[in-house]
What we know:
Helices cover 62% and strands 14% of the residues. By secondary structure, it is an alpha+beta fold.
Amino acid sequence: MNLQRAYILLAIFYTGLLALGILAMILGGGPPLALFQLALGCVAIAGLWGYFLGRPVMNCRTWRPFAGLLVVSMLAQLWLVVSASPSSGELTWLLASLVFTAPSAVLLFHYGQRDQDLWATPDERQGGQALAALLEQQQELEVDRQQAPRPASVRITREGDHYRARVMRGQGEAAEQFVRRFQRPATLAFFIERFTCLEIGDFVAKYRNEDEPA
């Protein structure tokens, strides 16, 4: 069994658990807190399917805060187990929820990482491929644009499996400098076009022209 198939089976398993929880609520089982848990479960299942299938669901900025919310809900459930003296049925529900929520929180935290191709647009993936191809021919890429209103200089290198972007923005006392590292070239392309005045086409035009014979 490959990893992708295992992920799909896990998503089916979690979906089945959610369906059982909804059925239990319809039949009158479960504590009042279960409604909140099921609502979280519906959102979590959507995110897990997106993660396992490599598809974007909602926005990447959604999932890490949501994973934090799952952790908070787990702590609340643990506090109820310890201090509230729940009945046997409620205790079973709370412990089962704790056991199955923990892996979901970890997986959704990773799903929310922006530096993945699944969150990139087709244009960003194409731009990333162009930058990666240029870096196979050049040790370093640098484009400098000093025209107002957003002067900027960007230097890109590849360090092992990562891409390193050194950015200088502004002029004079207002100038700022920072470095960012990325695993995926598509995320690098997104960063350049989002946070500087430059475009991927600026790099392509400069270095393809340099490679052309005089």
